[in-house]
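In this section we walk through a basic example: taking a raw amino acid sequence and producing a predicted 3D structure, encoded as discrete structure tokens. The instruction is simple. Fold the sequence below.
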Amino acid sequence: MNKIRLGFENSTGETLVGLLELPDRMDQVSSFALFAHCFTCGKDIAAASRISRALAARGIAVLRFDFTGLGSSDGDFANTNFSSNVDDLLCAAKALEARYQAPQILIGHSLGGAAVLSAASRIESVRAVVTIGAPATAEHVAHLFRDKEADIRQQGEAVVELAGREFSIKSQFLEDIERYSSTAKIRDLDAALLVFHSPLDTIVPIDEAARIYQAARHPKSFISLDRADHLLSKAADAEYVGSTIASWASRYLELDAPPQAAASHDLVDGEVLITELNHRFLRGMYSSGHFLRADEPEKYGGSDLGPTPYDLLLMALGACTSMTLRMYAGRKKLPLEDVQVRLLHERVHAEDCVDCNVGIERITRRISLVGDLTVEQRQRLLEIADKCPVHRTLESNPQIVTELAQ
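The resulting token sequence is shown next.
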């Protein structure tokens, strides 16, 4: 898998750090997900990294990041609360949309699950929400501070031990989570919901999963993580969660196209439509029955999720060349077993090009012909390559008429 370090600012200008987990190739990405880790954990906790890898292996890119004051992110944890976690999620979603594509899936582990349930309605692109061992509301975590609650409220701050580590908790944190005691956000969720929970969870009881499920509207699903612990410490449990999310989500996500399907554009034969998939270089390209992406490489400010416009131009010429040669060989019954076309576009100076009138753009096309062909047959096929329709269009200096649509 590929990993890209992604830094972005939270709502107060501090830098948060995330890792974008990707398939081996960017053109294998079908959609993007955002992962919220458990309370006082971090993006590198085993469950988060294993689930992200499992999803990336199935074409879903996942951004996992450290909340403010945790892991590699800036800020003071003592000054954070549940509301700031939700804000961090919104900032992460905006960063993902600006640089790649808006997330269609939100995944939250433990308190991160409560955070994605609260944030989902504020992220327009979200089509599916997943919780893993999550409480129904943020108020649930108050039980972790019962022994120190009086000190926190009287002194304004106290040090508590959580999962073997010490953290400073301020009274503002307790006051903040008290605001999140309602399941109304779950009821208003406008996305498909998948709830994972283990009946053996000793940190967040399975009754919380029941509260989430009962509050939510359909479509909703529940999967029991039999014999799993709260942190999904067994690799097999995390792999199961990742693979199940990918399969389940495919029913609800627009995996191969942006929000509008090509058919809804009423395109006629020979007409294409180009739409924006983000506000950088990623574009959706429609014909009457097909969808492709175009983009620019990362070094030029793109996200490398599709071929560049010049790549597509060369592909069009190469595909037309190959088709034309195959049709001619079939008609003439030539023993052509295989044909490959390799093209290169470059800008050259006039003095470097004997056949050019001025400084120019040059396309070099190299054709490999496999088969028991004579020298004459190979030469004739080379001549036929120059007769492919796209080649003729490029050489004919076509008139391009630009006008504003009504």
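Looking at the output, two observations stand out. Residues 256-264 have pLDDT under 50 and may be disordered. The first strand starts at residue 2 and ends at 9. In the next section we compare this with other chains.
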